[in-house]
Amino acid sequence: MKVETTAECPEPYILPNDVTLKVHETIQEDVGPLASIFKVLSDPVRIHILRALEVSELCVCVLVEITDYKHSALSYHLKLLKDANLVESKRERNFQTYYLTGFGRSLLQTIEYSINERFQKEL
After folding, report:
1. DSSP E strand stretches across the chain
2. Confidence (pTM)
3. From the CA atom positions of the chain, what is the Rg in Å?
4. Do 55 and 98 touch, CB atoms closer than 8 A?
């Protein structure tokens, strides 16, 4: 595949050839993993689950009671969060307990910090 190294832009906007080439390379990178994280985070129910797990690890039975969602619906959302490596679970006696992974906690904190920074600048 031939990659053009100059962009067709009106003067005086000119990109250096190395920047144009890097943009072409970047556009062709696989963004599937990043897109899948955004898909998982696009549902308010899953955001609520993450925020609740930020407070404490919780049993599914507690999440059912707090959210008024059916067990099957919560299990679906928790599976998606688990597949995205945002939450993990462990069995404690008769209870399945969920908690944020390090990645999940870090991602949630980074997003919340960035949003707070944005709104602080707008005030």
Report:
1. 58-59, 87-92, 95-100
2. 0.77
3. 21
4. no
Collect all residues with Cβ–Cβ distance below 8 Å to 61 and sequence separation of at least 6. 95
- Give DSSP secondary structure letters for 61-86: HHHHHHH---HHHHHHHHHHHHHTTS
Is pLDDT of 1 > 60? no
| Chain-centre distance for alpha carbon 54 | 14
* Pairwise CA distance, residues 24 & 27, whole Å: 5
How many residues does this entry show for the chain?
123
- Asked if residue 6 has pLDDT above 90, the reply is no
Neighbour order of strands in the sheet with 87-92: 58-59, 95-100, 87-92
Summarize pLDDT for 51-84 with one digit per residue, the tens. Answer: 999 999 999 989 999 888 899 999 999 999 999 9
Count of Cβ atoms closer than 10 Å to residue 15 Cβ: 14
